[in-house]
Design goal:
single chain; mainly alpha; MetI-like fold
Length: 266
C-alpha cells in the first residue's frame, strides 16, 4: 500500500513537471499555426500554415537557419578536435602547473561573453571574419573547449592505462590508438561534451549580435529582428519551432551516449 502510494505520488509529480515544462511549448506550436495579424488568405485567429511558408519565402530567414546549422556544426567539430587530445594530455601526463592551468581554463569559461565582445570584434575584423558563420564558430570554441576538456578528462581518466600499453604493443600510432581504442570507450563522454557545446552555440546571442553586423546572422538574431512596431507573433513562433528542431535532432542522435555519460559521471 505504501509502495503503491509512493509510486502514484512520483507519477503525479512527473506529470505535473512535464505539464509545467511542455505547456509553453504547446502554446508556441499553437501560435505558430495561427494567423496573428490577419490577411486576405487567413483571418485573424484562424488556423493557417502561412507562417511556415513565410519562413521559406524570406531569404533572410532561410539563410539564418543555414548559418546556425553551419557554425554550430563547425564549432562542435573543432571543439572536439582540440579538446580530445588536450584532455588526454591532462589525464595521462603530469607536468608543472597542470592543475593551475586546468583551473584557469575553467575560470575562463565562466567569463561573461560581453566582456570579450569588443576585443573579439576588433581582432576578427582584422582577420575578415565578421559577418561569417566561421567567425562565430571560432569564438564559441574559446568558451566550449574548456568545458569539453573538463568533461573528457574525467572520462579518459576512468580508462585503464592498459589500453594505452596494449595499443603501443600492437603498433598503433597515436591517431590509430584514438580511433581504435579510446574514442569507442569514451563515446558517452564525447556525446555529453558535444551536447553541451551544441546548446551553448545554438542559444548564444552576444557574439552572434556582435559579429554579424550585416550578414551571416544566425537564427537567434533572425528571431530578434522579427520584433518591431507590428510584430507577426505567428511568424516568430514558427521560427521558434524551427529553432527547436535541430536541438531535438541532436538529442535524438546522441541520446544513448548522453544517458550513459551522465550515469558514468554520477
Amino acid at each position: 500500500m505504501i509502495l503503491a502510494a509512493r509510486r502514484l505520488a512520483a507519477a503525479l509529480s512527473f506529470m505535473a513537471l512535464a505539464l509545467f515544462i511542455l505547456l509553453p511549448f504547446f502554446q508556441v506550436v499553437q501560435l505558430s499555426i495561427t494567423s496573428t495579424l490577419g490577411t486576405d488568405e487567413a483571418q485573424l485567429g484562424s488556423f493557417t500554415l502561412m507562417n511556415y511558408r513565410n519562413i521559406f519565402a524570406s531569404p533572410a530567414l532561410t539563410a539564418s537557419l543555414i548559418n546556425s546549422v553551419t557554425y554550430v556544426t563547425l564549432n562542435v567539430a573543432l571543439t572536439l578536435l582540440v579538446a580530445l587530445p588536450a584532455a588526454y594530455a591532462f589525464s595521462r601526463h603530469a607536468f608543472r602547473g597542470r592543475r593551475a592551468f586546468f583551473i584557469t581554463l575553467l575560470a575562463f569559461r565562466v567569463t561573461p561573453p560581453v566582456v570579450l565582445s569588443l576585443p573579439v570584434f576588433i581582432l576578427f575584423s582584422q582577420l575578415n571574419l565578421i559577418n561569417t558563420p566561421v567567425g562565430i564558430a571560432l569564438v564559441h570554441c574559446v568558451f566550449n573547449v574548456p568545458i569539453a576538456i573538463w568533461i573528457l578528462e574525467s572520462f579518459i581518466s576512468a580508462v585503464p592505462r592498459q589500453y594505452d600499453e596494449a595499443a603501443t604493443l600492437d603498433g598503433y600510432s597515436t591517431v590509430g590508438f584514438f580511433m581504435k581504442y579510446l574514442i569507442p570507450v569514451i563515446a558517452p563522454g564525447i556525446g555529453v561534451a558535444a551536447f553541451f557545446c551544441f546548446v551553448f552555440s545554438w542559444v548564444e546571442v552576444v557574439f552572434a549580435r556582435t559579429l554579424t553586423v550585416t550578414d551571416g546572422k544566425p537564427i537567434t538574431m533572425a528571431i530578434s529582428n522579427l520584433f518591431g512596431f507590428q510584430t507577426d507573433v505567428g511568424l516568430v513562433m514558427a521560427m521558434t519551432v524551427f529553432s527547436l528542431l535541430p536541438g531535438l535532432a541532436m538529442i535524438y542522435f546522441v541520446r544513448n551516449h548522453i544517458a550513459k555519460g551522465f550515469v558514468v559521471r554520477s
